[in-house]
Amino acid sequence: MEQYVGLDVSLKDTAISIRQDGERMWRGKCPSDPQILAQVVRKHAPHASRVVFETGPLATWFYHTLAAKGLPAICIEARHAQKVLGETLNKTDANDADGLARLAEAGFFKAVRVKSYDTMLIRTLVAARNQFILISTQLGNQIRGTMKTFGLIVPRGKGGAFENNVRNLLDGEEGLARIMLPLLEAWRDDSIHQFLALPLALEY
Fold first, then answer.
1. Model pTM?
2. Which of 29, 48, 50, 195 has the most Cβ atoms closer than 10 angstroms to its Cβ?
């Protein structure tokens, strides 16, 4: 007997619905931890044919963990699922799980390709690098703009040249220096610049 599992995943809890032979045979809830969830599914759906859940912030973690546990995990396009689930009159997590289990049983869903952990690490790395660059650029621009207000024009330059130019201009400007030097220290934070200096090939 094949069973079909629908999971409505939220950050705290996951609603579970299991169908067999066109009828719901069990539903419940457990913490949103795929390790725990795998145990629950194994217990109540030992012959699971499809375990369906929607795309979302926990989808990559759920997919790879459930698949590693030998469960037939399938991540489906959330927008497609919501077109069907939105027709439910009484919309709750439990009813959404029921709807996903029905989709799993009917095979009426659009599966999406879940990226590997290595790919997600690269994407995370690129996003973190871009954020560091944005922070560094914003701090540098703020320092230049603020000092310009006081008639202190920071010459063109990057890295150590920029820092030396700022410090030289602040010499004798005690009041402004008390404001600008903490910004300069944040700009030159070693952790930021060491991260930005690493070649991407080595980080991969």
1. 0.70
2. 50
